[in-house]
Amino acid sequence: MSNRVVQGRMVTPGKLAEMVEGSSVLEAEDITDADRPCPECDGDVIAVGYMPSVTEFVTGYKCQECDWSDDDRD
Ligand SMILES: [Zn+2]
After folding, report:
1. Percentage of the chain with pLDDT > 90?
2. 74 is a domain residue
3. Ligand 1 mean position to 14 CA, how many Å?
4. Does a structural domain hold residue 58?
5. Ligand 1 centroid – CA 35 distance (Å)
6. Which end of the chain is less congested by CB atoms within 10 angstroms, N or C?
7. 69 CA distance to ligand 1 centroid (A)?
8. Is residue 13 domain-resident?
9. CA of 39 to the centre of ligand 1 (A)
10. 45 Cα to the center of ligand 1, angstroms
11. CA of 44 to the centre of ligand 1 (A)
């Protein structure tokens, strides 16, 4: 299991991917540390790889302290 606490709530990899994507995803990998600070609040950022569709793989980033999130799409 790689559940993490985000903004005070325990989230699974799938739930974290949904928070970044804004909709449900097909599959999500384990949550990892992104080793970079949040640009908004300097909090810890975690990363999760997920598939929003069968043809796409995205790495999403989410701050554990605030609403900030991002992904690696161009
Ligand atoms: Zn933040």
Report:
1. 96
2. no
3. 20
4. yes
5. 13
6. C
7. 8
8. yes
9. 7
10. 7
11. 7
* Nearest Cα residue to 12 out of 22, 2, 25, 20: 2
What is the model's pTM?
Answer: 0.93
What residues form DSSP beta bridges with 50? 28, 58
pLDDT, tens digit, 9 for 90 and up, residues 4-35:
999 999 999 999 999 999 999 999 999 999 99
Q: What angle do CA 67, 72, 74 make, to 5 degrees?
A: 115
Pick left, alpha or beta for residue 35 (phi over 0 → left; psi -120 to 50 → alpha; otherwise beta).
left
CA of 11 to the centre of ligand 1 (A): 16
Residue 73 lies in a domain: no
d(CA 42, CA 23): 26
Helix/strand/coil for 22: coil
- In this predicted structure, the answer to whether residue 1 has a pLDDT above a threshold of 60 is no
